[in-house]
Amino acid sequence: MVRGLLSLFVLGHSIKLLVAQGTECSGYQAKNVVVTDSSLVAELTLAGEKCNAFGEDITNLKLTVEYQTDTRLHVLIEDVGLNVFQVQEQVIPRPKSEGATSASSLLEFSYTEKPFSFKVTRKSTGDILFDTSDVPLIFESQYVRLRTKLPQNANLYGLGEHSDDFRLPLSNYTRTLWNAESPFIPEKANLYGSHPVYFDHRGGSGTHGVFLLSSSGMDINISQTDSGQQYLEYNTIGGVLDLYFLAGPEPAAVSKQYAEVVGLPAMMPYWTLGFHQCKYGWSDINVVNEVVANYSVAKIPLEAMWGDIDYMHDHKDFTTDPDKFPLDKMRALVDGLHKNNQRYIMILDPGIHNTDASYPTYTRGAEKDVYLKAADGSFYRGRQWPGEVVWPDWFSPNTQEWWTDEIARFFDPATGIDVDGLWNDMNEASSFCADTTCFDGAASRRSLPSGHHPHYHQKAQPVSHNKRADGGDKKGLPNRNLFTPPYEIHNHRGALSASTLWTNITNSDSTTQYDTHNVYGTMMAHATRSALLSRRPKLRPFVLTRSTFAGAGRAAAHWFGDNGSTWWDYRASIRQMLAFASLHTMPMVGSDVCGFNKIATEKMCARWALLGAFQPFYRNHADISAPAQEFYRWPLVADAAKKAIDARYRLLDYIYTAMYLQTVTANKIKGGLVVQPMWFLYPDNKNTYGIQTQWFLGDAVLVSPVVDDDSSSVLFYLPEGEVFYDFWTFEKVVGTGLTQRDEVGWTDIPVHIRGSTIVPMRTESGMTTAEVRGKNFTIVVAPGKDGKARGMLYLDDGESLDVGDKKSEISFTWDGKAFKAEGTFGYETDVVVESVVILGGEDGPKTRTGPWELKEGFGF
Ligand SMILES: *[C@@H]1O[C@H](CO)[C@@H](O)[C@H](O)[C@H]1NC(C)=O
Ligand SMILES: *[C@@H]1O[C@H](CO)[C@@H](O)[C@H](O)[C@H]1NC(C)=O
Ligand SMILES: *[C@@H]1O[C@H](CO)[C@@H](O)[C@H](O)[C@H]1NC(C)=O
Ligand SMILES: *[C@@H]1O[C@H](CO)[C@@H](O)[C@H](O)[C@H]1NC(C)=O
Ligand SMILES: *[C@@H]1O[C@H](CO)[C@@H](O)[C@H](O)[C@H]1NC(C)=O
Ligand SMILES: CC(=O)N[C@H]1CO[C@H](CO)[C@@H](O)[C@@H]1O
């Protein structure tokens, strides 16, 4: 008996393995195919027996193919009953078809009837971009598998959030997407966000993108078959196959095409490009005041101060600690900052403390019924910074109103704290609950050592969750095991529900956390943005979020979470920035400068101050357990920071212009991205494909920092024969490939201006961005090999949500002899262009002196 059971179990196991390899599943058959100029619709019916690999096969599917634009092809495979969960429109409003046809499209869809498979081909080259014929499609209640063949040595990027190589490994590699609090940003692990989009770069024949619009937990396996065929395979635990193919063919065009699907990133207020300082563990308000004063004494520009959870009373949102951070002193701090044109930003966590009868935030939320519910209808509870907490259900109809009201009350300029932006942390959502007994357990620490994660060891229990009729409402199939699904994704925190909200709880719109887990943080960021908008309807909001999902850039900026003060993390910040800014269309990103956990050393912090100054979001932040690391703490770091911030602030309008271009669809300038990897600009040059320690800020400024531990040497790449100019000396440099530079000082960072560009710079920087806005411009012309150059300057008031016509879009051209500035000049300013500097002349740079007003075109 026992033996029989055992062999049955072993047999079951090997069937699962065969099934996972796809040899046992028969796939689908396409029938009743209807083709029009712009679309194809077909029925897909299970072609054989159900194989029930990890759940139950769904017999009838519907395929819809739509040529939406000439560069975007949409392929949707969904259940005929429309019960399988699909991401809510409020999370990602679906892009409309713009009337492309199969004839006008750059892409072509073709299919095989049985077993059903499809191919996407680039017409101009005949290149097969996607081909699912290797193994049959599996579409089950709790497991969906789709595999595509890829070329050998493919150049793949994306599928964040991760801290792995920027160009993804091709063997035995799994990208798990399941948002998780991830101290120390471990390698080969799911981190705080989920971005199921990859870029496949095929050198001269073009770049394309593939976006799977799914918030389901998944393992994306990238490897080779036994016969050596390269593949990428989606293994999701639910959802439909909602695929967008983006044709490029230029890499930056793929970024723009992706943004058109998930939403263009929000335009940032000008001041947010200043330097920010934060620390968890500033013990009281006096210390915060001292930090502000010490930056001023050290003459290091400080734009914004941040309040971590220290300011709260017992870590409760919307409270201040009466002894350490009393409200009157907080108000005085913020007043003082504002008088100096500085800013203040505060943290809010999603967990709301629920056991204190005199905590009105909780009570008001309870009255409005905004919290997630447990099986018995009571509020679902867990443990977070304040102790026991409940969590807002961002899909509940009253949640926005409650959150907006709490924000309006607490941050009321007349009676509360007049913040300039908000920070959403712990919103994966992170729970300190390791198991069901946690309500009487002790509070955990924030920074669990990696490896020390709570695992559930609970038996699988089929959970019947179907309180509604078979509605065809895309809200999730009934009768699934939502707690311990049969296919186990490689969540580095352990079980699906470990250290987060239980996946079997139901949201108020009757979807479940099982399907919506990965959008929780993004929903919070959207709610926070809306609250800030109703508080100050005319101003652009600023929200920083830890957890993200595809399209989160519409609402928020992002930092890379709780990294460490190590050279490894310093390097990781570059590849993480490249992925978020250029692929995931979230340009306002950066890591905690000088590192969050552990001890920052003087030399490393000096290098990081320089590196951070050339990344979009520039904030120094450290953990409570880490020693203070403000830039003024060490002379070397202070010098590095002053030099770095001076350069950044002179480039502020150049960066702001790139930010503007990334937030609009216009294709006025090729590129128009805030950060680009080198291969975006040299797509034919194979040497650039793997580079992850250099980047372009905008499309002119190439940054090549020292990256080796405690080193003074750097090996960087300047493409052969291309013209560059040293940013610091304006000296002309012709690229010779890999270039070694030794004795790079601790306050130095190699930066070049790419030939053929024009960079508008302020003549001087200032202690705040407000001061910088009063400085004049000098326009730096960097001619390319052909002697020509072009660039752009965007100007507005820096903060209005809708600037209307009050903006200037000025394009600059240099044809080798004549300089021209033309465009629109709707933004009124007294600031002038003092001079135009033409680099690369026989006897060095030539300066032409103005002044020219920024009221109309000019030239010489
Ligand atoms: C995907 O890769 C992971 C990790 O290597 C592996 O455990 C899992 O079985 C793979 N999934 C499938 C369906 O092969
Ligand atoms: C595949 O990767 C896993 C996890 O990184 C590792 O344990 C395993 O040894 C690797 N297998 C091969 C064949 O390289
Ligand atoms: C500020 O500087 C003063 C004088 O150097 C020093 O005593 C104090 O510890 C510093 N405080 C902080 C918070 O940096
Ligand atoms: C989720 O599953 C756990 C473990 O089976 C169970 O204790 C809990 O009641 C379930 N919650 C809901 C909301 O179904
Ligand atoms: C800008 O240039 C104008 C005209 O040359 C000059 O009057 C003004 O003082 C300059 N502003 C600054 C801040 O240097
Ligand atoms: C500070 C710290 O622990 N950094 C670690 C970040 O994660 C990588 C990869 O797991 C480690 O190598 C670093 O040491």
UniProtKB/TrEMBL annotation:
GO terms for molecular function: alpha-1,4-glucosidase activity; carbohydrate binding. GO terms for biological process: carbohydrate metabolic process. It catalyses: Hydrolysis of terminal, non-reducing (1->4)-linked alpha-D-glucose residues with release of alpha-D-glucose. Residues 673-759 form the Glycosyl hydrolase family 31 C-terminal domain. Residues 449-477 are annotated as: Disordered. Residues 467-476 have a biased composition (Basic and acidic residues). CDD domains: GH31_MGAM_SI_GAA, GH31_N. Residues 1-20 form the signal peptide. Keywords: Glycosidase, Hydrolase, Signal. Its EC number is 3.2.1.20. Residues 265-658 form the Glycoside hydrolase family 31 TIM barrel domain. The keyword Plastid does not apply. Belongs to the glycosyl hydrolase 31 family. This is alpha-glucosidase. The lineage of its organism: Eukaryota, Fungi, Dikarya, Ascomycota, Pezizomycotina.
